[in-house]
């Protein structure tokens, strides 16, 4: 019989763990660029900048907390199932 297993059959589901640090900094950068664009186009002026600048940091931090909690919960759930694999030792006392 031939082995028809392909590389695609051996790959995991395609999901990878989230790098929370990169996620947070990427969101903060995009948020700061958005604030900069609002200021440069004249949509936000002087006193608006005071409350606009912290918004990207708060959103990025909250997203980081959610991502860290979700990835930690998934990791813990896979390790705390309580299932123990049966041993594969098929030898008996008589054959030893």
Describe the structure.
There is one protein chain. The chain has 96 residues and is mainly alpha-helical. The protein contains four helices and no strands. The protein has a domain of 52 residues. The protein is rod-shaped.
Name its key features:
96 residues, mainly alpha, rod-shaped, transmembrane helix, membrane
Topology:
Elements: H1 7-10, H2 20-41, H3 46-52, H4 54-79
Q: What is the residue-mean pLDDT, rounded to a whole number?
A: 77
Give me the Rg, rounded: 25 Å
Q: Low-confidence parts lasting 5 or more residues at pLDDT below 50?
A: none
Based on helices, strands and strand pairing, what is the structural class?
Answer: mainly alpha
> Strand percentage, roughly?
under 5%
Helix content: 55-70%
Provide the succession of SSEs. Answer: HHHH
Query: What is the rounded distance between the termini?
Result: 34 Å
> How many helices does DSSP assign?
4
Overall strand count: 0
State the shape. Answer: rod-shaped
For the biggest sheet, the summary is:
none
Transmembrane segments: 20-39, 51-69
Region (Disordered): 71-96
Organism: Nocardioides panaciterrulae
Keywords: Membrane, Transmembrane, Transmembrane helix
Quick rundown:
The protein has about 100 residues and is an all-alpha fold. It is built from four helices and no strands.
